[in-house]
Specification:
single chain, 153 residues
């Protein structure tokens, strides 16, 4: 998929303005060119494969020439926490066993580069830290040897 502005830019280098406008009109009428559908598809693809923060998705779509109102509609019910969680999950697994400072620094940088807000990053780091601690402690028996040897009375 392409946005209308992308198609217009590609055609403008080869054809005159009237031809470009006729092609754009025909593609739009036939349903092949729809900025709202393009923005929704872009968002969906990013959420599945390479989660990004709302601000970075907005910048990407603006760069593709999608109008601001269309972007606002496409990002209306954006789940920042869910996307940040998915974006940081594999790094958090690799960092399991690290001290919290290093864990937080590495995860914070990744999520910040991906365009997530500070409050979302903070909550995601805490969640992933708790989960990694649970994974590390899941095989540990908390009863002492003495309690285990006593058995039922």
């Amino acid at each position: 998929g392409r946005s209308e502005a992308e198609v217009r830019r590609r055609l403008a280098s080869r054809y005159n303005i009237q031809t470009v406008q006729r092609v754009i009109t025909a593609l739009t009428e036939q349903g092949y060119l729809d900025d709202a559908a393009f923005a929704a598809q872009w968002r969906s693809n990013r959420e599945r494969r390479h989660p990004r923060g709302k601000s970075l998705l907005r910048q990407e779509l603006l760069g593709k020439g999608v109008p601001e109102e269309t972007i606002r509609e496409a990002l209306e019910d954006f789940d920042g926490l869910g996307n940040a969680y998915r974006a940081g999950q594999s790094l958090a697994l690799r960092l399991a066993g690290e001290d919290f400072t290093r864990f937080r620094q590495r995860l914070w940088s990744l999520l910040q580069r991906r365009g997530f807000e500070g409050s979302v990053i903070q909550e995601t780091v805490q969640t992933l830290w708790r989960e990694s601690a649970d994974l590390l402690n899941s095989g540990v028996d908390t009863e002492s040897d003495e309690e285990q040897n006593q058995g039922p009375e």
